[in-house]
Amino acid sequence: MQLEELNTFLREKVDDMKAQDIATIDVTGKSSITDFMIVCTGTSKRHVTSIAEHLTKESKSLGITPMGINGDNQGEWVIVDMGSTIVHVMQEEQRELYNLEKLWG
Fold this sequence. Notes:
Beta Polymerase, domain 2; translation regulation; alpha+beta
């Protein structure tokens, strides 16, 4: 799967679960660990966790296994590392506090 197709797929899967304010940040040349970040907001701990679980399940069904998943025990900020793209699923408070769009934009 090409990078653009992967990012479209990832955005669609978080949107399937009603993630809010989905943003894609190009960090090519700014980060040595990834090329893109997708940031979205969940409305509760359970919602954040559910979005990440759905994304992981749907990715695996296509044969794309995440390199890592962090934060799913707390549900405030879950990171799903897809290699060339890292998906950040955050509650609104964490998203406002860390403001990844401003930090990496």
